[in-house]
Amino acid sequence: MNHTWKRLLIVPLLSGVLTVTGVSGPAASPAAAGGRPAAEDVRAREDTGAGEDTGTGEDTGTGEAGAGEDIRARLAAVPGMRVLGERPAGAPGQTVLDLSFRQPVDHHHPGGESFEQRLTLVHKSTRRPMVLYSGGYDLGSAPQRPTEPTELLDANQITVEQRFFGTSRPAVTDWSKLTIRQAAGDHHRIVTALKRVYGGAWISTGGSKGGMTAVYHRRFHPDDVAGTVAYAAPNNTDDRDDSAYDAALERVGTAECRAALKAAQREALLRRSAMTERYARWAEGEKAGFEIIGSVDRAFELAVLRLPLMFWMHQPADGCAAVPTAASDDDALYAWVARVSVLPVYADRTLADFTPYFHQLGTELGYPQFAAPHLDGLLRYPGIQEVRSYVPRDVPLRFRPGAMADVDRWVRHRGGSLMFVNGENDVAVAEPFRLGPGTRDSYAFTVPEANHHLSIRSLPPADAARATEALRRWAGEGPR
Quick check: 138 and 2 in contact, CB under 8 A? Predict the structure, then answer.
C-alpha cells in the first residue's frame, strides 16, 4: 500500500492526513486520479519532518566494516527476535534488515497469546545512537527512509509497525488489547531487548499519529529513551469539546481564503447530484463499495465537512488560488474536492485497512467534529462525523475519556526531554501538547506559516539551532 494515503486518514480523523501521490485514473477520479487509495499513500500525507528524507546520501564513515553478517547474528541471538531478510542499503555503511519480534497480546499477562511485530532496522554502528521511529500505522512496502533525528545524529534507526496494523496482529483480534498502554509496552520490550546490542543513547520520534505514539510510550516508560521529538502531534484532551478546532479554522490563513473554502463546500453540496454521480462512477470502475459508511452520498457529505481541515493540513502556501468558484464547471469542482479530501479514503477497502486506527480514535484518542453553520440546509446526515461512521458495526467502540487527559497531565507535571514541533497553520494541532510547571528540559517550537509537513530544519535559524543542540545533548553528542 502507498504510504501517502495512510496519512490522510489521520488528521481528518484527528491526528494527521495524507498527501496523495502516485494515484492515477480518469480526470474526475477521487484522488485527483483515482486508483486504489493505498494505505501507504494515506500515511504519506501525515508524514512530517520525522520522516522527511533530507539527507545527502554521503558516507559518514561510521559504519562498521563487514558488520552486516555480525549484526544479523547478534540480532538473531536476541530472545524473541527473528531476522526476516535484508534490503538494499540506502547509503554506504548501512545494513537494512527486516525483523520480527514476538510480543504478548496482553502485557499484563505475558504468558498468554502472542504475535509477531514487524520492524525494520537501518544499522550503521552499535556505537552510534539509536532512533526509535513509528509512523503510528503499518510499515508498508516503501523503502525505509531516515527520520530527521536519525540524520542529525548520524544514528541507527528502528522502525516499528504498530500492534494490530499490517501483519503485526494476533490470529484472533481482541480489540480490548489495542490501547496506548499496550502499544507502549510493545515499544518498551523492543527497547529493552535491543539495548543488549545498541548500548548508546536512544531517541524516539514520530510525526502526527507517530508523534503521539512516541509521547504515549514515554508516559508509561519514561526512562526508555533519552529524548523524544514529536512533530505535528495533536493532543485532544477533551473529546466533548472541539471548539479549539473550530476557532483554528476561523483564524488560519486569510479571510478571503477561508471564505473561498466555505463557498466551495457549499458549491459542492449544491451540486451534490453531479458530484456523487462522478464519485459513484469512480467506485464502480474500482469495484469499491461504501457499506461501512452507508452510501456514496454519505461518504461525499463527510468528505465535504472535512475539507477545510484537509486543505490547511496539506495544501501548499499558494493553494488558495486553486480553490474553485461558482464559475467552475462540475469536472473541475469534483477533481479539486477529490484531491483535497482524498475521496478514495471513504471506500470500504481503505477503511478496512484503517480499522485499528479508527478504533483507537473511538476508544482513547478522540476525534474532532467540525461546526459548519455555513452549510445549514445542505446537510442530510446528522452525526455523520462520529467515529462510528468509519468502523464496521461488529467492532466495539467504548470511549475512555481519561486516557488523553492522563497523558497531558504527565507531560505538564512530570514529563522531561520532550520536543514538540508544530506548524502555525496546521489545524490538526489546534489542541497541541503544552509544557507545564513540572516539564523538564523540554521545548515547544512553531514553524511560521507551516502546515502538517515540517521539520526542525524549517524552524527559524535560532530555534533550529536550539532544537538541534538539545537533540544532540540528549544523545550524548557534542556540538558539530
Answer: no
Assessment of whether the complete model's pTM goes beyond 0.85: yes
| Chain segment 263-285, per-residue pLDDT in tens | 999 999 999 999 999 999 999 99
H or E element that contains 278: helix 272-286
- Sequence-distant (6+) residues with CB within 8 A of 45 are 4, 5, 7, 8, 11, 16, 17, 18, 19, 20, 313, 314, 342, 452
What does the DSSP 8-state code read for residue 320?
G
What the block records as the C-alpha cell of 364 is 482513547
Q: What DSSP assignment string belongs to 415-445?
A: -BSEEEEEETT-GGGSSB----TT-BS-EEE
Pairing relation of β-strands 156-160 and 443-447?
Answer: unpaired
- Sign of the Cα torsion 430, 352, 171, 161 reads negative
C-alpha cell at 219: 508516559
CA distance 174 to 167: 15
Beta pairing partners, 440: 416
Pairing outcome for strands 114-123 and 95-104: antiparallel
- CA 109, distance to chain mean position in Å, is 29
The secondary structure of residue 221, as a DSSP letter, is -
How far is Cα 51 from Cα 371, in angstroms, rounded to an integer?
32
Q: What does the DSSP 8-state code read for residue 62?
A: -
With a CB cutoff of 8 Å and minimum separation 6, the contacts of 59 are 91, 92, 93
For residue range 329-373, list pLDDT tens digits in order: 999 999 999 999 999 999 999 999 999 999 999 999 999 999 999
Q: Which grid coordinates belong to 321?
A: 488560488
Rounded Cα distance between 84 and 98, Å, is 5
Cell numbers 529493552 label which residue? 192
